Amino acid sequence: MIVGATRWEVVTGDITRSTTDAIVNAANNSLLGGGGVDGAIHRAAGPDLLAECRTIGGCPTGEARITRGYDLPARYVIHTVGPVWSGGGRGERDLLAGCYAHSLSLARHHALRSIAFPAISTGVYGFPKDQAARIAASAVGAALRRDPDAFDLIRFVCFDEAATALFDAAVRDVACTDQ
Ligand code: ADP
């Protein structure tokens, strides 16, 4: 999918292998590592990533912080903290949209041209995957409309085919509405 100057794609795979300028980590508030994609990113980046994360002092839900990528192919990691799903009445949707918006704005301020996102909050944090996909796509679509030349590539990396199908459909909806 091409939106303005940006290639926007959905792939199935392991985000730690992504060669984009930055990969996004679905971290927790401490930024000190965890399971799921967070654990995979720390394992692949090596111990220097945790050392840098310790200097940051945590991150509020819905915001993002940037570190170097160390042993990863990506030069930077953008750590964002998705909301824990607790039924949808605690601002979870806006917080999740904030994760995507803040990550893209950090990337732009560092002049990074390509970025890969996992399906934030859809693992142990329990966000319904179909809603998470629509929120992710509409947040990225809004950022692209505001700033059409900021990125060359935005990639959603899903861990399984079912999530890929949901994210793919959500991206097509947003991208087609924009044409
Ligand atoms: P959260 O706590 O935000 O829910 P999780 O890491 O538990 O974060 O899961 C977020 C998503 O990342 C899930 O859909 C999970 O399947 C996926 N995931 C786990 N490992 C990887 C990986 N190496 N690459 C891409 N996605 C991954």
Written description of the protein model:
It is built from 5 helices and 7 strands; from the N terminus they run βββααββαβαβα. The protein has a 7-stranded mixed sheet with strand order 1-2-7-6-3-5-4, with helices on both faces. It has a single domain (2-178), classed as Leucine Aminopeptidase, subunit E, domain 1 (3-Layer(aba) Sandwich), CATH 3.40.220.10. The longest helix has 18 residues, at 92-109. 40% of the residues lie in helices and 20% in strands. The chain is globular, with a radius of gyration of 15 Å. The chain starts with a strand and ends with a helix. The protein has 179 residues and is α/β, with parallel strands linked by helices. The chain has helices spanning 36-45, 47-54, 92-109, 129-146, 161-178, and strands at 2-3, 6-12, 22-27, 64-68, 76-81, 114-117, 153-158. It binds adenosine-5'-diphosphate. The site of adenosine-5'-diphosphate (ADP) has 20 residues, from helix 1.
